[in-house]
Amino acid sequence: MNPIYERDPEELDNWVRSGHSMSNKDALELECLLKDDSYKERLQLLGYYVAHTVSIDSRHRYHELIFWFIDRYPDLEFLRRGFFRVSRAPGSPYEQITDLWRNKVAEDPSNINVLLSAAYQANMSDISLAKEYADRVQQLAPDLPSLKRLYSSIANHEEIVRQFTVMKFEEP
Fold it and tell me: Which of 90, 127, 151, 170 is 20 to 30 A from 97 (CA-CA)?
């Protein structure tokens, strides 16, 4: 098992937060030191890019890091954190991220952690897909405490979309 799975989520959060205060020079130096299994350094860089996504290049690098984590650790619960989710904003790789999650779910359709993480990502812009994944989790583990949180998140998103639609089409 990869050591990242043995890490306390708080420790992983701390690595991300440590990247927030990195200088551009420090981030560039860290990029040069990356090895294939450098998850700690990538989490630090993820934190850096979360705090510094002002250029197209930094947003692109931020998204590359998200792809890297999903591709290697799709069942890592930590991937449910908000900074691993990509919206459908112009220029974002939302479709590619969603496709990667679909592939990971297809590779391991009974992996609850993969399904939950895929559902949280889908809930950014595809509520029906989020529900599909949540329903699969419910079939596999109906008493899972985090399932209630997921359904609540989906319901909240549905309500936000409903209110926005009503506001957008109401007569002034």
Answer: 151
Residues 6+ apart with CB under 8 A from 69: 39, 42, 46, 76, 79, 84
Question: Is the full-model pTM beyond 0.90?
Answer: no
Closest C-alpha to 28, from 52, 9, 1: 52
Q: Report d(CA 47, CA 44) in Å as an integer.
A: 5
Question: Rounded to an integer, what distance in angstroms lies between the CA atom of residue 132 and that of residue 139?
Answer: 11
Task: Return the SS3 of 84.
Answer: helix
pLDDT single digits (tens) 139-160? 999 999 988 888 988 988 777 7
Side chain identity at 38, as an amino acid letter?
Answer: S
Side chain identity at residue 139, one-letter code: Q
What residues have CB less than 8 Å from 93, skipping those under 6 apart? 63, 67, 86
